[in-house]
């Protein structure tokens, strides 16, 4: 009889461990992100630093990539923005700028570039031009589907040139 009770206790213990382990695995799976989108996530979700560029406050990384905008970032509103790039390479000539937005909470990957009429696109329709403030610049319009923290992955042609993390109201 004691042998039977011992086996029963061991089986209950093993079953409880298996259920707990399965629950932990399911929680981990639900929090995981597909490998493709993990490349688009920033190392830190801290808002990118701001700095002055010819008296104008911009956000980004000095001497690499910066973004200026007219107002605060608000969801569902078209925002005019100027992008500044440093380190111009010959491969940038006649290339367009693309932006892939990733929302922090949902990890949704979205088009954020738009024209003034609300037509979304992955690629800005205007090519890079030269600038006195940076090696290259382009003006675009952006709109965000929801508030929260966003990581903007910026490309020139197929080259990833950097990320900017912003807060959208």
From TrEMBL:
Q: Which UniProt keywords apply?
A: Signal
Q: Which domain of life is it from?
A: Bacteria
Output the PROSITE patterns linked to this UniProt entry: PROKAR_LIPOPROTEIN (PS51257)
Q: Give the signal peptide, or none.
A: 1-21
Q: What is this protein called?
A: DUF4871 domain-containing protein
Q: Which species does this protein come from?
A: Melghiribacillus thermohalophilus
């Amino acid at each position: 009889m004691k042998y039977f009770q011992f086996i029963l206790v061991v089986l209950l213990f093993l079953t409880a461990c298996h259920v707990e382990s399965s629950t932990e695995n399911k929680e981990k799976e639900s929090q995981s992100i597909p490998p493709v989108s993990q490349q688009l996530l920033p190392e830190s979700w801290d808002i990118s630093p701001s700095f002055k560029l010819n008296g104008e406050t911009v956000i980004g990384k000095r001497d690499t990539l910066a973004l200026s905008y007219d107002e605060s970032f608000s969801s569902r509103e078209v925002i005019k923005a100027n992008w500044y790039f440093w380190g111009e390479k010959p491969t940038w000539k006649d290339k367009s700028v693309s932006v892939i937005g990733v929302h922090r909470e949902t990890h949704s990957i979205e088009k954020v570039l738009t024209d003034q009429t609300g037509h979304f696109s992955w690629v800005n329709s205007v090519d890079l031009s030269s600038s006195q403030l940076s090696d290259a610049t382009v003006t675009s319009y952006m709109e965000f589907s929801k508030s929260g923290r966003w990581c903007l992955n910026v490309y020139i042609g197929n080259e990833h040139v950097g990320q900017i993390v912003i807060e959208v109201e």
